Amino acid sequence: MVKKDFSFEILSAPGDKRFARVGRITTPHGIINTPAFIPVGTAATVKAQTVEMMRENGAQAILSNAYHLYLQPGHSLVEKAGGLAAFMNWNGPTFTDSGGFQVLSLGSGFKKVISMQSDEATVAVKSTRHAFVDDDGVNFKSHRDGSMHRFTPEVSMQIQHSLGADICFSFDELTSLADPYAYQVESLARTHAWADRSVAEFRRLQEKDSDRPYQALFGVLQGAHYEDLRRQTAKKLGDMDFDGFGIGGAIEKDKLGEIIGWVNEELPANKPKHLLGISEPNDIFAAIEMGVDTFDCVSPTRVGRNGSAYTLDGRYNIKSAKYFEDFGPLDPDCNCYTCKNYSRAYINHLFKAKEILAAILVSYHNEHFVIKLVDDIRNSLSDNTFDALKKTWLERYYR
RNA sequence: GCUGGAAUCGUGUAGUGGCAAUCACGGGAGACUGUAAAUCUCCUGCCUUUCGGCUUCGUAGGUUCGAGUCCUACUUCCAGCA
């Protein structure tokens, strides 16, 4: 008998919002107070950060990727080490992504900008794709060594089962905004079939290893920006044996809230909703308002590593020459470790000198910034000041 | 002092008689949303919003229809020998 030590409670919901709520996800490795930002640690590490830094930052969980871990020789060690959380010395709640995103990023989207504006989504770049989809699964050419691998829903579930994260995702096919409606329909049917197979294989493995900590399985919703497809997939997956849901797909920025609204009208309210790969502040506000409980995104570390820092007045490039002699902190309104201890001039120097500490310090600040933003929004939902926070915050940030 | 070599963009270089300015670095600006990302894109002699125009291969001469390239002298630097 599988012991289900996983739960989601809705603690409060402001009366004037249809879907927004404050909640608590309880996993075998700890609690996640929602809404929450979940930093991404693709290869069992948040790039340029230690787990101790992440804990100090306020991170409640970390999301890794089945595809990347599977390609590493160290993959087989994760299970021996006692699971992902123990292996990376995080010991808190973890998520693993299914590898579904790589169907796009290494497939038709290979070396292309995966734009969130439909009119830019057709940007074509000469490339050789590394992922090939068929109805049964996907053939991947490893980005590490070029060797061929095959992912099916069963393979993804087996990997995620062995990694032992608290929350796993069904194997899906992410489409791009450039794909025509007919392809979206075809692809969605495939994602549905894969969802069925993901549940069957995941629950089978769970029964087999019933002494292990419970792993929740979230079903991933596709359907691009089409209301009929989004509602269809929400109804279909909403009736299945999922512990929560991941809202995925290339999503047109302007339609983000609307799309989340459609699926939330169809999905069971008492299960957690995760929005995959989103962390721009306006998207976060829009998504939480429409009932999203958790987010993950690479943006804080990626842009941080590349010299871009979040502040309440917007994002800026610390590598710019105008910060050469600026001894103020990265973000004057921030109390994080980086901002308390290091100057813009120093960080500018570190980037110029190609020193790795630059990436470490800015990644730390950016993770802190986004985690704190979502924490602040959570608090604003509790004391019914969400609308005021949203207005003043976004006005200042995008001014 | 002698012998040999070298001098091209901020730096190092490519260019061996036919529209000078290749590549790298450095410099500037920007991008990044389930991470092929400590990555990528654009600019980097001058003038011009653009179209385009102009200037430049150490210096001064020479040969040639034509010279960064060949010749002479000079300057500076490098190496070897004294």
Shape: globular
In total, how many domains does the architecture comprise? 2
Q: Could you give me the name of the CATH homologous superfamily of the largest domain?
A: Queuine tRNA-ribosyltransferase-like
- Indicate the CATH architecture of the largest domain: Alpha-Beta Barrel
Major sheet: arrangement of strands: 4-14-13-12-11-10-6-5
Mean pLDDT: 93
Layout of SSEs?
Layout: E1 7-12, E2 22-27, E3 30-34, E4 36-39, H1 51-57, E5 62-65, H2 66-71, H3 75-80, H4 84-87, E6 94-97, H5 100-108, E7 131-133, E8 138-141, E9 148-151, H6 153-163, E10 167-169, H7 181-208, E11 216-221, H8 227-238, E12 244-247, H9 256-266, E13 273-275, H10 281-289, E14 294-297, H11 299-305, E15 308-311, E16 314-317, H12 337-341, H13 344-352, H14 356-382, H15 386-397
Parallel strand pairs: 4-14, 5-6, 6-10, 10-11, 11-12, 12-13, 13-14
Antiparallel strand pairs: 1-2, 2-3, 7-8, 8-9, 15-16
The chain binds one RNA strand of 82 nucleotides through helix 5, strand 14, helix 11 and helix 14.
Task: Report on this structure.
- The longest helix has 28 residues, at 181-208.
- The N and C termini lie far apart (56 Å).
- Helix 7 (181-208) links the parallel strand 10 (167-169) and strand 11.
- This protein has helices at residues 51-57, 66-71, 75-80, 84-87, 100-108, 153-163, 181-208, 227-238, 256-266, 281-289, 299-305, 337-341, 344-352, 356-382, 386-397, and strands at 7-12, 22-27, 30-34, 36-39, 62-65, 94-97, 131-133, 138-141, 148-151, 167-169, 216-221, 244-247, 273-275, 294-297, 308-311, 314-317.
- By secondary structure, the chain is of the alpha/beta class.
- The chain has two domains: 7-297, TIM Barrel (Alpha-Beta Barrel); 309-399, no CATH class.
- Strands 4-14-13-12-11-10-6-5 form an eight-stranded parallel sheet.
- Helix content is 41%, strand content 17%.
- The protein binds one RNA strand of 82 nucleotides through helix 5, strand 14, helix 11 and helix 14.
